[in-house]
Amino acid sequence: KAFSKQAYFDWIIQALKDHGSLSRRDIDELLWDRLSDRYDDRQKKTKVTNLIAELRRNGLIENTGTDAAPRWLLTGKPREHL
Predict the structure, then answer these.
(1) How far apart are CA 65 and CA 78, in angstroms?
(2) Distance of CA 82 to CAs 37, 58, 67, Å?
(3) Model pTM score
């Protein structure tokens, strides 16, 4: 039931377009049931963290909140960075 990394990126980006910003909890709720059943909760949390970090490193999203209460926004840069 696992999806490609690009599918997870696409879901996060589309949700940000639809809602403007997302908290970490929002992103967890968006992806949790779509992650492989082979992952335990800790592994799912790590997977989501890594997906967010890759989007941030590629300049596609930015945190406008704090480390404890992040608010993720699209940066407006083109998608071809992924």
Answers:
(1) 22
(2) 25, 7, 24
(3) 0.89
